[in-house]
């Protein structure tokens, strides 16, 4: 008997509109969850999270390699989430590794912060040249009014602060309707079936869900880090 199952509500929104966050399931179930997502015509979304003291949490690089092996045709995207304020060489090296991993596993796109756009401009340009698209992380405190003049392939509107475990703030859906007129837009952060449907209705191209999508998955505890 399977250890994780996918709720069928994603079918109402169409193929590949919904992505499942494999970070939301127990590590031992992530590969299985990814394979099921691919079989269900859902995207596989993976958070790579760098915390305080450059501590890596989230989906590991070994897990990403195993996911690609188990689901060779999966449409995978990565979200590089950086918490804390340090920008030392160790941190930068980890961020570069995340970008190179996106290329290695054939990720459809990687989502990064504004800071990473500047710090890793050359690496991201090389990734795009290799076929991995570039999306911008848009946290709750950023309106995203300048994204139309930026060289991007998409924008991921966060309904919660990246790297935290909160309830979705639906006020940020207003950004989706505005941005979707000029760019592909995704929605992430506490997305439920209802929020996914609402996001799609106002123009979202992609919605990411975790606990609400996986029936028997148990959430991985997320510590809110301050830096």
What structural class do you assign from the helix and strand content?
A: alpha/beta
The neighbouring-strand order within the major sheet is 1-2-4-5-6-7-8-9
Estimate the global geometry from the Cα principal axes.
Answer: globular
Q: What is the mean pLDDT? A: 90
Low-confidence stretches: 217-227
> What is the domain tally?
1
Helical content (DSSP H or I, runs of 4+): 25-40%
CATH topology: TIM Barrel
Question: What is Rg?
Answer: 16 Å
CATH architecture field: Alpha-Beta Barrel
The tally of strands reads 9
CATH H-level superfamily title: Aldolase class I
Commentary on this structure:
The chain is α/β, with parallel strands linked by helices and 227 residues long. It is built from seven helices and nine strands. It has helices at residues 30-39, 61-70, 89-104, 114-119, 121-129, 173-179, 193-201; strands at 18-21, 43-50, 56-58, 76-82, 109-112, 133-138, 154-158, 185-188, 206-209. Strands 1-2-4-5-6-7-8-9 form an eight-stranded parallel barrel, surrounded by five helices. α1 packs parallel to α2.
